[in-house]
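note to self: dont lose this again. the chain is below, predicted strucutre after it. 272 aa total, dont forget to put it in the shared folder this time
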Amino acid sequence: MAVYAIGDLQGCYDPFCELLDALRFDPAEDTLWLTGDLVNRGPKSLKTLRLVKSLDESVIAVLGNHDLHLLALAAGQVRNSNRFETLQKVLRASDCDELLDWLRHRPLAHHDKKTRTLLVHAGTHPRWSTKKTLARAAEVEAALQGDDYESLLGKMYGNMPAQWSGSLTGNKRLRFIVNCLTRMRMLTNEKRLNFSHSGSPYRARKNLTPWYKFENPKWAGTRIVFGHWSALGLIVLPNLISLDTGCVWGRQLTAVRLDKKVPRVIQVPGQT
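---
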């Protein structure tokens, strides 16, 4: 049984199918970990979402910011724009409600004790242990899966609060957790969320640091697998695997086999 982690799909159905073929993926035996952002920007969000859902228990997909935006669009909590035109086929599909209900019940974080690996879309805060990351993710998951989920979808937008505090409550607390797990890239020296830079970390201002670069993070000892940051590209280190390799921009779609001592990297060409 193989366990593969795959980077952001963003509606790139054809490269996804090509990668599954390259892996010789068997849903009866193997498991896929998907870093989120299943939809948007690419040409076939609907087919991608249907395929991932059809894989049932053989796939673990965490929510990304684009997935959450699809849910917010469907709930009427945000206005549509040309940036999200690729999501209209999902919203018009006969099985839209079923697909969105499935998506709404995906986790924001997943942890495997055997391999000591945590799967998230964007990252986790240096002040959060693995256990606390899962607990914080569970708070948002409970809100998303509850009867009043549309309220969260309407109030999750915004960059504030930027600083984590255990005393945060209500929508401010949930917004910070969503931003941390699905949007974060850079932090200030005081570990405040900063969304002013999305390019290469080497071109960021000196007072900004990638979330994974802080010394002695609380999650130390756990391997973090994440996507979201296409400008960062592929990183495969003992405790860090970055998997968004810009498939939707025509670069590559990347998988890494996680259940081997030395992770194996498999890539196919990106969207054309």
